[in-house]
Each structure stands twice: as C-alpha cells, then as structure tokens.
Amino acid sequence: MRVGRRWLCRLAATGVLVVAVPAWGQADTARAERQIKAAFLYKFLGFVEWPPEAFERGDAPLQVGLFGADALADELALVAQRRQVNGRPVQVRKLRAGEPPTALHALFVGRAEPASGALMAQARRQPLLLLLGDSEDAIAQGAAISFAVVDDKVRFDVAPLAADQAGLKISSRLMAVARRVVMP
After folding, report:
1. Torsion angle of the four alpha carbons 143, 17, 23, 26, in this order, in degrees rounded to the nearest 10
2. CB 66 within 8 A of CB 72
3. pTM of this prediction?
C-alpha cells in the first residue's frame, strides 16, 4: 500500500493531526513518517502568527530551514510547492553544520544531529523564529513544537511560552490537538 501526498495533505487539512504510522517494511515506514511530518510541519505554519515586522514585504515568502533532516526537507518542499500559508509562499532550505539560522521564520532540527543542541541555543536568540524539534528533549532545549512517535502514531507537543519568547503566537486550535501543552 502506498501513501499518497494528496491524501496526507487532505488528512492534515481536516484537522486530524494524529496519524498512525503504518506497520509496513522499515523503508516504507520511514517514508510514511516523513510524509506525515512534512504535512504536519506545513500545517503548523498556518497555526502560527508572525508579527508584520518578521517579513520584509507583504508578499515575502515564509522561510523554513531544516537541519539534520534532508529527506524531510525534500518532502516538505513537495508539500509546500505551489501552495501558500496565510497568503505567503513557503520556501524550504536545508541548513548545514555551522550555517547560522538567519533569515528564517521557522527552523526544524532533526534528532540525529550531534550539533543540534548548539544550533537550537543559537536559534533561541533569533527573534521571530519558530523552533521545531524531533527529539524527546527538544522542548527542554527551547523548541515551541516537538514531534513524538507514540504507539506508532506521529504526535506533537507544544510549548507556547517558547513561541511567545520568540515574538510568535501559536493558535489555541493547534494546542487543543497536541499530545501535551508544556507550561513552565
């Protein structure tokens, strides 16, 4: 069985944000998980409010960087192509080790990167940047949204204070479907 991108996007659009990761072969499962996470990342952007000063112009694109998650970046680029979030096109960038998280509106940090802690610390100092993670300690490191796979389902946690500190506002609609809303 193959999971189509359109199906994933329709599923994400319905607001159903908890999806089982199918128990197929390991490669199929990893691809399905990436597709689901890419759809979620794209949808998350629509539930975040950036202040007007976060953008150079009214039609400036929403810049999303991914570090340590090149395959996920490719999936997100496919999901976002020819679509907009709040009237803005989405541009996806793969960040490399040592590259600063500047000129971004959102940054996703993969779990397998040894430099992820340093990058997250640097990103927290950037104003107007939504920080997303893919590890159990991402929220503790300052991420506003973090993925978790629980019982073969892709879930997510939200830390609204981390977004507030970056000058962003996360919709209560997104927090309502989160696995956990982490408050200090």
Report:
1. -40
2. yes
3. 0.83
